[in-house]
Amino acid sequence: MNAKLKGYTKGSLQTRVAGADPYQLVQMLMAGVLENLNYAKGAIQRKDLEKKSHYLSKAQAIVDSLRYSLDDTAGSDAAGNLRELYMYMSTRIADASIELDVDIINEVARLMLDIKSAWDQIPMEQRDVAMNQMQQASGA
Predict the structure, then answer these.
(1) Rounded distance, CA 82 to CA 54, Å?
(2) Non-local CB neighbours of 110 within 8 Å, separated by 6+ positions
(3) CB 30 within 8 A of CB 67
(4) Which of 82, 79, 59, 60 is nearest to 71 (CA)?
(5) Helical ranges in 69-101 per DSSP H
(6) Model confidence pLDDT, tens digit, residues 78-124
(7) Backbone dihedral region of 21: left (phi > 0), alpha (psi from -120 to 50 degrees) or beta?
(8) Contact 90, 63 (CB under 8 A)
(9) Are the beta carbons of 94 and 38 closer than 8 angstroms?
(10) How many whole angstroms separate alpha carbon 73 and alpha carbon 9?
């Protein structure tokens, strides 16, 4: 990617992040995992180990960020279950890196797609309620 296009892309991402609510940020993070997994698959197929490591490291860091951002105060088992699933995904990404295994990457991508699909289907009213609760909890 040339320098001008890379700069534009970075600026565009910063603008989207700055204007996003927490719900949208999670959507963007999930999309980032999927994007990096796809890039890593291509790198493995090209036998570009440096790029493979770069993209899988980014995907793993995003999955770990999603895991660390889970809110246990909601009072359900969902956060704990999701935390365990994110941990499993992170471990499988490491396995894929070591084994150069595209099938493992596909497995993680399918799991992330399932999570993202469920996330994307949250009704707008429930998003608004959750946003209000987050703002009240933070004292905003």
Answers:
(1) 25
(2) none
(3) no
(4) 79
(5) 78-99
(6) 888 999 999 999 999 999 999 999 999 999 999 999 999 999 998 88
(7) beta
(8) yes
(9) no
(10) 36
H helices of the chain, in order, are: 3-18, 22-46, 49-68, 78-99, 102-120, 124-138
What confidence tens digit (pLDDT) does each residue in 11-38 have? 555 555 566 788 889 999 999 999 999 9
Q: Which of 104, 1, 99, 46 is nearest to 10 (CA)?
A: 1
The model's pTM:
0.79
Tokens representing 139 are 């004292």
Q: What's the CA gap between 134 and 89, in Å, rounded?
A: 27
**Is 58 in contact with 81 (CB distance < 8 Å)?**
no
Spatial separation of the C-alpha atoms in residues 137 and 62, rounded to whole Å: 25
Q: What is the largest CA-CA distance in the chain?
A: 50
How many residues are recorded in the chain? 140
